[in-house]
Inverse folding.
């Protein structure tokens, strides 16, 4: 993938901290007059990467239980409509009854198919559309007052496996997360998610850090990236260590009543981040105070101290304070 962000991408980076400390919370906000999905300057590189990962090991990255057929079509429709509405220069959707024509000008794709007729598409509807977006997508079946991870495509995970989590309930797939269960965060979050309505999407952000600009931090590829965490020095820290932010969206699907959960992962190196001293100062404070069980869970133990030193030496005077995120202007 491309090794850096343009200045525009840096300016719109979804910086995750509204204050100087971080604790697990539900931190969910409505999405108003914004697209669900983001098409940014990394679109082509990331789509190429997603497709190569799926081609190499679909079983490990793609889950689709048989009762999720309707949710698949819901997902295809929601995504096509979102892209065609918000990025009409790249995507168009023409619907004539059940006969739909989808055009993706970036990828040179133009397909006419019959809605709800799987045989008219080159892939299953969910896989077809997932191969054209930068977001990982999880589909949750809502039943028995719970949410079950019954479908998904996950090529850019932060250390979890969709093959392992397939079929699990909300609290089950969150089991490895420290302290949030005891704080009642997941109980509250689930109760909220179950009540999300059609046409009223919600969003939240999650964050961690990754060494090198690597989206695919899956268990499967651990041998390729695990050792990188021991390679951080004060000299290479600014270029190597990245703040990793997931912009997550939650959308109620109309036919299946399933919940669509999208994850757009953004990476920014500390050097890129440091053009905004508000960000570096805040990240320094957050990391300094981060409880040790969360440091360990996020895999930061080996290089947090080096990052703290680098941040304290590379925070400029706040002459660029107007660089606070513009697109994601609501503080989360
Ligand atoms: C409904 C869609 C969601 C799915 C499918 C999902 C899935 C996951 C998974 C698989 C993990 C990694 C667990 C592991 O280490 O194996 C995770 C982490 C986490 N999730 Fe969720 N999640 C969802 C929604 C939420 C919501 C609404 C919250 C709000 C509280 C939340 C809070 C968290 C937190 C705090 C972590 C730990 C992240 C970290 O410290 O890096 N999740 N989630």
């Amino acid at each position: 993938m491309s090794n850096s962000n343009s200045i525009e991408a840096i300016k719109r980076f979804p910086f995750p901290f509204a204050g100087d400390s971080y604790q697990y919370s539900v931190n969910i906000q409505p999405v108003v007059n914004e697209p669900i999905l983001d098409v940014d300057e990394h679109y082509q590189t990331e789509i190429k990467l997603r497709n190569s990962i799926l081609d190499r090991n679909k079983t490990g990255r793609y889950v689709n239980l048989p009762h999720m057929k309707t949710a698949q079509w819901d997902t295809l429709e929601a995504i096509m409509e979102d892209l065609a509405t918000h990025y009409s220069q790249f995507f168009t959707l023409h619907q004539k009854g059940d006969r739909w024509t989808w055009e993706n000008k970036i990828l040179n794709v133009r397909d006419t198919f019959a809605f709800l007729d799987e045989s008219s598409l080159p892939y299953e509807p969910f896989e077809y559309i997932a191969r054209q977006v930068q977001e990982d997508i999880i589909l949750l079946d809502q039943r028995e007052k719970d949410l079950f991870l019954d479908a998904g495509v996950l090529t850019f995970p932060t250390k979890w496996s969709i093959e392992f989590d397939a079929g699990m309930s909300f609290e089950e797939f969150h089991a490895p997360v420290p302290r949030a269960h005891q704080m009642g965060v997941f109980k509250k979050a689930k109760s909220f998610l179950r009540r999300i309505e059609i046409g009223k999407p919600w969003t939240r952000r999650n964050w961690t850090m990754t060494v090198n600009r690597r989206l695919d931090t899956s268990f499967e590829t651990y041998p390729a990236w695990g050792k990188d965490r021991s390679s951080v020095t004060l000299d290479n820290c600014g270029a190597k260590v990245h703040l990793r932010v997931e912009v997550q969206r939650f959308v109620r699907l109309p036919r299946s009543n399933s919940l669509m959960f999208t994850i757009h992962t953004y990476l920014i190196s500390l050097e890129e981040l440091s053009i905004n001293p508000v960000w570096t100062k805040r990240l320094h404070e957050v990391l300094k105070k981060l409880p040790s069980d969360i440091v360990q869970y996020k895999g930061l133990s080996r290089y947090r101290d080096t990052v703290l030193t680098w941040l304290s030496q590379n925070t400029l005077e706040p002459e660029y304070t107007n660089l606070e995120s513009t697109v994601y202007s609501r503080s989360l």
Notes: Residues 24, 26, 138, 140, 147, 149, 160, 165, 173-174, 176-177, 180, 185, 189, 193, 204, 206, 208, 261, 297-298 surround protoporphyrin IX containing FE (CB under 6 Å). The longest strand covers residues 241-252.
